[in-house]
UniProtKB/TrEMBL annotation:
GO terms for cellular component: nucleus. One of its GO terms (molecular function) is DNA translocase activity. This is SNF2 N-terminal domain-containing protein. Signal peptide: none annotated. Residues 8-87 form the SNF2 N-terminal domain. GO terms for biological process: double-strand break repair via homologous recombination; reciprocal meiotic recombination. It comes from the Eukaryota. Pfam families: SNF2-rel_dom (PF00176).
Length: 129
């Protein structure tokens, strides 16, 4: 009984000291939280320009991984995800970067400049969105 009292006092003191730094979520708060996330995965075929860009990014990713450039590898993985979700912006950036031979051709919101080998036939996609 004495040990429980000491333990309870220590727990109260710890909570008092940490309460200003730690948010403790009660059952009441958790019940108000949104429902669990629901994901739907659809497997679709990529368009030929997407496949070409995807392969070029994978090749760049392999080079980055072999030279241990982790940040570049993470950028490439993000680019692959963007390419699969909406290829338009990424393909346009790749084409612009290749045309200018510089990696700063993409807008600030895009994670990458162009990748080598990402040239896309201009007849397959409009120049501007």
């Amino acid at each position: 009984a004495a040990e429980r009292a000491v333990g309870a006092e220590a727990a109260r003191e710890l909570e008092e000291r940490t309460s200003q730094f730690i948010l403790r979520r009660t059952t009441e708060i958790l019940q108000k939280s949104p429902p669990p996330r629901l994901e739907l995965v659809l497997r679709l075929r990529m368009a030929p320009p997407q496949v070409q860009a995807y392969r070029a990014i994978l090749a760049e990713l392999r080079l980055s991984a072999s030279s241990r450039q982790m940040a570049r590898a993470l950028q490439a993985m993000l680019a692959l995800r963007l390419l699969c979700n909406d290829a338009g912006d990424l393909l346009l950036c790749a084409r612009r970067a290749l045309a200018r031979r510089n990696e700063d051709a993409c807008p600030a919101g895009m994670p990458l400049g162009g990748y080598r080998g990402c040239s896309v036939d201009s007849s397959s996609e409009s120049e501007e969105k």
